[in-house]
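In this section we walk through a basic example: taking a raw amino acid sequence and producing a predicted 3D structure, encoded as discrete structure tokens. The instruction is simple. Fold the sequence below.
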Amino acid sequence: MSNKEYKTPEEVKKRAEEAIGHSFKEVFELAQEFREKNNLKERHGKGDIGQAYEEGWFNYACNEEAEPDFKEADIELKVTPFLINSRGYRAKERLSLGKINYRDENWNEYEESRFWTKNHHLLVMYYQYIKSLKRENFSVEKIDEILLEELPERDQMIIRHDWEKIARYVKEGKAHELSERDFMYLSPARKGSGGDEKVKYDDRYPKAKPRAYSFKKSYMTKLFNERMLTSEEVSYILPDIVLPKEKEFDDILIETLKPYLGRTVDSLKKEFPNYRSGYSEKNDIIKQIYKSKGDLEETDEFQKANYRLRTLTVDAKGTPTQDMSFSAFDFEALVKEKTWKDSIVYDEMIDSKILLVIFSKNSEGKEILNNAMIWYIPKKDENKVKEVWKETRSVIKNGIILQQRVSHDRNGRLIFTYKNNFPKSKFNKVAHVRNKAGESEYFGENGNSVKLKKPAEVITLKEIPEELKGVPVPTGEYMTKQCFWFNKKYMKQQIKDYIKTY
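The resulting token sequence is shown next.
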């Protein structure tokens, strides 16, 4: 076989950099020529991008999965997409790092494992995914060389911790219980079509679903932004570079808050005075407890592992006083999202873990920090959020309707309000869409509103009260910002077992 030899990582990287700007079409044609010349088949299915680059661009046949792609240079090649959306540069998908071999992996030594052997030195070729562009016109734009042992020490520690956790599951016969959500950066992602396929790895234990080592999408997003774009000051949650084997990051988050449980909000304000009065004051107090310089969601660990912070205040019956909100969405970007799992809603509401901090009132009627938990949406409820996402996209595509109504302002004066046709809390029991702004705005674009590409239909009242005659009516060009929410009654059921009595 006429494999081109690459003796060093530098040779591989140099050749990779030469691929920048060359279209996928060109690479696929070169790959076809190489396979025909060497009587090879497509190992990973028709149109596999990684194989096309190895064979078409590097003239090097795919090898066995347990060793690096370029054995002599000791380097593994990865080709992966990024995209640009309303939140900036994002990894489009997780980075697969090879099949988990439950039976033959060296589960006792991380740095002698198949995972380490194959992936300790990665060459990542990034291309930009653009929905409106045919795949054959994509091309590699950026190259990154990642050595696991040269990643930030905290990253190394967490990746090792994740691998050791996978090892414990397998050695204890619990591979069938593996779940991506239980891991921070390195996760055991489902491999294959996602059906009922299972593999046997030990006669003593239940069969397990096929899985692959993967860097999470959130981790790849942070790596891309840190290494390929601009380097910014980093804030951390973990107090030092040591994550004890017996402790999970989740445990550390909860343990940090434990000394403050039962404390009144007033006493916490005195101890942590750097807060902004109003809606965000509780988040600011929590941030200070963790000694974070910025918002908790901007810390290194939260971004890389896709964690979020939410505070809920509950009434005497344990019902949150408000629904749980997420970021205001870009109407056009929402419609352009290709698939459910590529959506911002999926990333924020389904694929994330939430540090949920609960506030209540004690027996004296004073507001206190009641408890904290790590929460994520149960699998059985995910489809309910998807239904809201689909309906919201449908409304934007088919036409937003603003129905004029009469209400009263805080001073009791009559005013017009406008009800839209996005799915409300009665749409299903889990989630809904409504405005997210300090004030309603329908007459111009500002911090509370957005301009619509397709103007909304405004339906006015047949009879206008005398006091409101002459009051301007929206043209439908603008409307108040909207976002997705978890229903407060739904969240009541999620937190009911965590509310303490003080």
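Looking at the output, two observations stand out. The first helix runs from residue 9 to 17. The chain has a mean pLDDT of 92. In the next section we compare this with other chains.
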